[in-house]
């Protein structure tokens, strides 16, 4: 359902190259060869006792010079890091943003706060008087100017977003040192299904390595916060029993993205089991709405229809239409806040748990799947324009043909009840889109689709 534009692909390739430099695909290889070579030299040079003596002197000198240079090396790597944090002014901003404006308000670290769902949740928390600190690395998976615009919107409601990566353990430990967070709402991730074909390591970096770094910091924090995080409906993978229930199989993922989310559910389980972290995993079903993600179909269809460009619609293998259980952002936000409010406490301290802590998983969907032609016709009506449709068979790229949530559990435990249907939700999205991209949205796009 999500079809990326050619221009987006080209720039994504350049991104992939950059990421490849950071995360080589076979990090161990070079070291092994080097150590073989070293081994041969070692045998040659250490033949006599005098050379051993000279080598020892040399090694002592080397170690001494390394130790005296180390402080310089680590401070210079801090300076060259892409993200800047620290200092008195920065700490003051963090503290002010973190303090609740109501008695017994929550203090929440929101990761991915410059993202679609994270920005909406942060605003909703602030509106009811909770304290929030955002964390986001503003990566360029999609246009970072949209993330920056969300940040200025949040900052006008006095919410501060720290510019940093969830893989930065020093930053995390600093944040937990200066703020006694009651909750972590973890929404930072490499989202999207198809981008894994170009850049698989970005999914491992954010959804696995980053998750573990964050959980380590949460585990060691005092007080130990409750952890609420975004899993995905994609964990149902090849499951074809509908509607999808939390008790269904999730061991047959159809994409790397889904596999990393499934891994997250199991990784969080071990932190719950060993360290007493209170865990709530939320399986979101195709979230859409104002300030949404440009890599999702409803968003780039809107852009293309306004620009008079054709859109590609995927048809399922057997001629069936693809369908998604589209869920409006405000409904998801209410579900997230209810998950924060009902999360039991973590029970660990100093890395040990004192008793069992809750481990919960909920579907957050809308329960009425919408197929692509219907989605397009609703957009056409709200945009008052006809789409140029190009229908092709779906390639196998990780997208599943159908999603449909059973939300009985979330209704019972969270009081979750979606209230916005696709027509009302897309109307609000289109209104936002036109006001955000302005009249430029009509007809004068020079790029893609
Ligand atoms: N939107 C949906 O339909 C949907 C469906 C299922 C699950 N989810 C999940 O919900 C969460 C939020 O999704 P979204 O739609 O708001 O996506 P998004 O891409 O708009 O938001 C994610 C944010 O996290 C940030 N981020 C990514 N990696 C990071 C890292 N290593 N360190 C710090 N920040 C990082 C990004 O810059 C981005 O702003 C994600 O975990 C996503 O997988 C979303
Ligand atoms: C939905 O899930 C609940 C359990 O959470 C189950 O009892 C119910 O039968 C499911 N409904 C359908 C229609 O599958």
TrEMBL record:
Bilayer topology term: Multi-pass membrane protein
Gene3D superfamilies xrefs: NAD(P)-binding Rossmann-like Domain, UDP-galactose 4-epimerase, domain 1
GO cellular component: Golgi cisterna membrane
Main location: Golgi
Keywords from the named record: Isomerase, Membrane, NAD, Transmembrane, Transmembrane helix
Enzyme class of the recorded protein, top EC level: isomerase
GO molecular function: UDP-glucuronate 4-epimerase activity
Subcellular location, record wording: Golgi apparatus, Golgi stack membrane
Transmembrane spans: 45-69
Any Pfam family matching the protein: Epimerase
Enzyme Commission code(s) on record: 5.1.3.6
Known catalytic reactions: UDP-alpha-D-glucuronate = UDP-alpha-D-galacturonate
Domain of life (superkingdom): Eukaryota
Domain NAD-dependent epimerase/dehydratase as annotated: residue spans: 108-342
PANTHER family given in the database record: EPIMERASE-RELATED
Identification of the protein by name: UDP-glucuronate 4-epimerase
